[in-house]
Amino acid sequence: MKYETVIGLEVHVELATQSKIFCSCSAHSYGAEPNEHVCPACCGMPGMLPVVNKRVVDYGMKAGLMLGCHINRVTTFDKKSYYYPDLPAAYQTTQWFAPVAVNGLVEIETSKGKKGVRIKQIHMEEDAGKLVHDIREDTTHVDFNRTSVPLIEIVSQPDLSSAEEVVAYLDRLKNLLRYARVAECEMAHGTMRCDVNLSVRPEGSDKLGVRTEMKNMNSIEAIKRAIEYETARHIDALENNTEVLVQETRRWDDIKGKSFAMRTKETAGDYRYFPDPNVMPVVIDDNWFDEIKSSLPEFPEVKRERYMSEYGLGEYDTEQITKSIALCECFEEAAKTCGDAKNAANWIISEVMSILNLRQMTYDMLTVSGKSLGELITLVSGGKVGRANAKKILAAMFDDASINPEEYANANGFVISNDTGLIDKVVKEVVESDPKSVADYKGGKEKALMALFGRCMKELKGNCDPQTLRKILIEYIDKI
Amino acid sequence: MDRVILRRLELLNQLSLTETQKDEVIAFFADRENDAKVLENIDTSNVERMVHVMPVMTVVREDIPSQPFSRDDLQKGAPETDEGYWCVPRVVE
Amino acid sequence: MIYTAKKDVNSACKIVAEDMLLTTDMPTAAGSKMLDGYMSLLEAEVLTILKDKGYGVCGKADVGEFAIDLLGETSYNGANTADGKLLNSSSEILKANEADAVIALDVNGTTRRAAAQNGLVSVKPTYGTVSRYGTVPVACSGETVSVMAKDAKTCRKVLDDIAGHDDKDGTSLPESEIAKKADAKEIKRIAIINDMMADVSDDVKANIDSAVAKLDVEVVNIDSSVIASSRPAWNILMSAELCNNVSRYDGVKYGHRAEKFSGIDELYTNSRTEAFGDLLKTAIIFGSETLSTENYMKVYDKALRTRRVIVEEFAKIFAEFDAVMIPACSKAFYTEDDVKADKYVSYKENFYTAPASITGLPAVVAGGVQLIGKAFSENALLELASKI
To answer: How far is B78 from chain A (nearest CA, A)?
Structure first.
């Protein structure tokens, strides 16, 4: 018998805010000292009251709109109770009754073509802390830095049917949320986490099979492996009666390549949700809604089409730049400033992206403004700064985004000199010091000219128009 | 209310009651039956729930971080800490 | 125990804070062994305000465990009694002239009962007009910081000093709303709710009669079974919120940790079981049950909807009357025997205090009677109370 896999995902995404969702502690827990970003509220002490971070609602709305959702104009917060050491107040404030966004649709593309994945809901909530098990054998160490960092949970309908589709869906979420600049979505940093609900049924059946939920997958590769393993386990159970499938939560062990049933308490799942009396309903009026809506970026595919038609970029260049909203913004502004889109695209792809790669920065971490880059390109194309020096200026702009390229070029002697007297002097010195190369060149060796040219350029610190130098050099040698 | 439900509620709330306390709690729940009857007499069929008594909406703050409390102070009254962490018996994963 | 902590202060106006208000220079236990010796890093906003205005906070008054009992008898320090009579720490301090006013957290009516039984004045202001920042949370949807003093004038002065918006309390009303207090009209017509006079002793009835005789207002007796249903609805909301709010006390971050345990669940269970008293445990179990999947709609949601019915009932009454007069307790004083006979007697006695708790309406107790008014009418209630 042929089987089909039915998969729904619960994706947790950490929102890129500065402070936590209900208190003002820093939300940047990654890499911090243990319990450095903690206050009485987020370590469960009595007395502080939750006040909602507005930007969390902004980002929740943005995420909802990017994923085609309906935004609930009155959205409320609820308490979910359970005991675990990573939950200091023994409750998590989340959205149970009226989540910020519902009923969305995300389009994915795989080898089988395009497909829509329905989003059930997106809710805003606080993250839990982190448990460290490897400091002492008998003890778990508790770190509340991550407690109350804002999250959205994106719950899909069970519309996915393969690891390939899941990967395409996660890539699409990551791409859209990064475009809206609401989240980093980096699985390795834990800023994107995913639970997989999976069941298997005979192909064509309209009845869902027994569903298991898998947790603890921290890379796309692990998710792929987990789905393939779990699908095979379910089919094996159905075909060969190797085991009885039960609805349960399973932990993926990527090293062993297997999923294991998690120990569950008798009271698991009894979360006793109720509306939080300390958090007033958040009402999203038309002004707020319109402000968020108008702040949304173009969708990546709209941008791609426009880059090819409006700017005349090729497919490769378009694909490279649209990888990141930061690159897009830099490119568009640079193209506008220098008036030469193709040149701007070249600079982004050959120079900007290579510095980002060299410095091991993500593309979204780009801080160089498109305007400055455009000005730099203009300096080069206008013959005011040589390309090699322009690269030095760009590197400096990476270190300090406030640098003005022209001022920096002036201050550091990177401006091309029109002083032909100086060029004549340097050419004379170089040529006279190297009669061998002169002879070689006269004997027909083009390379010898390049050596002389290079030495002249070096003496001139790059501040010379190459065409001019070449002309003066050849004329001088010819005269000898 | 019976001892089976009560056992579950004890587990859920991390409490362990003595036999006497269990009898008292069960008697307390029996008393609440009368309260339930009082509430049944209130017609709430077309009434919206009221969580907040004051009609104030959208209380939000700006996204500005601040860190006025130090870890050392927060952990002063802690039963057990180590290297800046709070400690609990090992939680098996 | 009367005081859980005492301090010498040099001030013309001395304040004692109930041990439900967090202080940084004195411990806060909220009447629970769980928080024995707990030093807070926060100070209750109202105490910060009062200190800034020149008041001296000279001590902490003991309270019952998380302030849900009758008069404070469930404190882990033991009950205060004299000749079998239950005493309240805050009211004893006022009677002994050791402070000009007590700042309390009125969770389940303790402050109002204490004022009524001791001939003192207390004011529970309109919900949201006084910051709850820095109070030990129990039943957040209805509890308010309250003031108790010997006379209405002192209550008025202290309340005026602490009322105001606080950005740190998400339920705090904007100043424009709080300013409505200034528009409160003089009280001329009062309703006595017959249903609320059930089961009260003759002395309490006499207090009502005496108050009516002293006041130059029109008094009409009316019926309202809806107001009388506040108690069961409030008990559900209070217990559920309490259950959730005290779940944070688990022996991990601070507070009592059991000496013997094996594994995390035993750490939690033993610590909580050792540290919590009987009334609190029962309240937790009851509150938890109202939120279970099977009961949520039938019990908790029903209580939330009943709250709206009660609020609307008060609105109807206030269309005709300026205030409501009801008792604050069933009898002139409580005894140790009352609590021995029924550990959960506060879940019945709050019949008289639940209407103002569940609605967030202002309530003033004076001369052993309780006046409940429209939102923001506390000053008019206090004005009337000064004549009782």
So the answer is: 11
pTM over 0.95, yes/no: no
Residues 4-23 of B with CB under 8 A from C: 5-6, 9-10, 12-17, 21
Domain count, chain C: 1
Q: Report the DSSP pairing between strands A52-53 and B60-61.
A: parallel
Please name the residues between 52 and 81 in chain B that touch chain C, using a CB distance below 8 Å.
Answer: 52-54, 56, 59, 61, 69, 73-74, 76-80
Q: Answer yes or no: is C324 within a domain.
A: yes
Cβ-defined contact of B79 to C247 (cutoff 8 Å): no
* A-C contacts at Cβ under 8 angstroms: 97
Verify whether the Cβ–Cβ distance C171 to B17 is below 8 Å.
no
* Inter-chain residue contact A43 with C250, CB threshold 8 Å: no
Taking the CA of residue C380 and the nearest CA in chain B, the distance in Å comes to 20
Tokens of A197: 């609900």
Other C-beta atoms lying within 10 Å of the C-beta of residue C7:
14
Q: Indicate whether C265 belongs to any domain.
A: no
Residue-level length of chain C: 388
Chosen for mutation from B54, B58, B60, B85 (greatest number of chain C CBs closer than 10 Å) is B54
- The CATH number linked to C78 is 3.90.1300.10
What span, in angstroms and rounded, lies between the C-alpha atoms of A322 and A324?
Answer: 5
pLDDT digits (tens, 9 = 90+) for A72-128: 999 999 999 999 999 999 999 999 999 999 999 999 999 999 999 999 999 999 999
Tokens representing C30 are 């909220």
The answer to whether residue C215 sits within a structural domain is yes
Interval A361-416: pLDDT, tens: 989 999 999 999 999 999 999 888 988 889 999 999 999 999 999 999 988 888 88
Is the ipTM above a cut-off of 0.90? Answer: yes
Q: Which residues in chain B are closer than 8 Å to A34, comparing Cβ atoms?
A: 71, 83-85
Using CB atoms, which residue from B64, B84, B92 is nearest to A35?
Answer: B84
Q: Which residues of C touch A79 (CB under 8 A)?
A: 244
Exposed / middle / buried, residue C388 (Cβ in 10 Å: 0-12, 13-18, 19+): buried
Question: Which residues in chain B have their CB less than 8 angstroms from residue A135's CB?
Answer: 82-83, 85
CB–CB contact C289 B29 (8 Å): yes
**β-bridge partners, C372:** C324, C363
- Residue carrying the six token digits 């730099």: A376
Identify the sign of the CA torsion C349, C352, C357, C363: negative
Complete DSSP assignment for A390-446: HHHHHHHHHH-TT--HHHHHHHTT-SPP--HHHHHHHHHHHHHH-HHHHHHHHTT-H
Dihedral sign, Cα of residue A437, residue A438, residue A443, residue A448 = positive
Nearest to A150 by CA among A131, A176, A124: A124
**All domains in chain A, ordered by first residue:** 3-287 (no CATH), 298-411 (no CATH), 420-479 (1.10.10.410)
Give domain limits for chain B.
Answer: 3-40
Q: Does C297 fall in a domain?
A: no
Domain limits at C57? 3-229+302-385
Residues of A in contact with B49 (CB under 8 A): 275
